[in-house]
């Protein structure tokens, strides 16, 4: 599957952004989708997951309560709603499904 992440940008602390992960190719709706992020000089880290039909979601402790992931299988798209953004959320955000990864979208949060 081909994955395309979008929606990143530069915002102030406390602002919100919604990332999108659009998929094409294999049966996207039958697979879980994950969000990861990588800050400069740091390892890539897990952010969230959503199962195939959206019934189950998982979050890293650092984003729980602020980020929400959802999906619209009719649109082959998964979303990551990010609220109350902090400078430490600054990173390139990637979506992944199975062995496939999107190209990443930059999120920059300034204080």
- Uncertain residue segments: none
Average pLDDT level:
95
Structure class: mainly beta
Largest sheet: 7 strands, mixed
The secondary-structure element order is EEEEEEEEEEE
The general outline is globular
Q: CA-to-CA gap between the ends?
A: 37 Å
Report the β-strand fraction as a percent range.
over 45%
Enumerate how many helices there are, as a single number.
0
Count of beta strands: 11
Helix content: under 10%
Briefly characterize the structure.
The protein has 111 residues and is mainly beta.
Structure description:
There is one protein chain. The protein is built from no helices and 11 strands. Strands 2, 4, 5, 6, 9, 10 and 11 form a 7-stranded mixed β-sheet that branches. By secondary structure, the protein is mainly β.
Task: Fill in the keyword field for this structure.
53% strand, mainly beta, 111 residues
Write the layout of secondary structure elements.
Blueprint: E1 2-6, E2 9-12, E3 17-24, E4 33-38, E5 45-50, E6 57-59, E7 67-72, E8 77-82, E9 91-97, E10 100-101, E11 105-110
Parallel strand pairs: 2-11
Antiparallel strand pairs: 1-3, 3-8, 4-5, 4-9, 5-6, 7-8, 9-10, 9-11
């Amino acid at each position: 599957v081909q994955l395309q992440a979008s929606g990143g940008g530069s915002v102030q602390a406390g602002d919100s952004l919604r990332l999108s992960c659009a998929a094409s190719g294999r049966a996207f709706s039958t697979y879980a989708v994950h969000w990861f992020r990588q800050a400069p000089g740091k390892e890539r880290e897990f952010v969230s997951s959503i199962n195939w039909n959206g019934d189950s979601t998982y979050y890293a402790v650092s984003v729980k309560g602020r980020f929400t992931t959802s999906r619209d299988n009719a649109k082959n798209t998964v979303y990551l709603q990010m609220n109350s953004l902090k400078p430490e959320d600054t990173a390139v955000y990637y979506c992944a499904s199975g062995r496939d990864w999107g190209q990443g979208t930059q999120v920059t949060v300034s204080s």
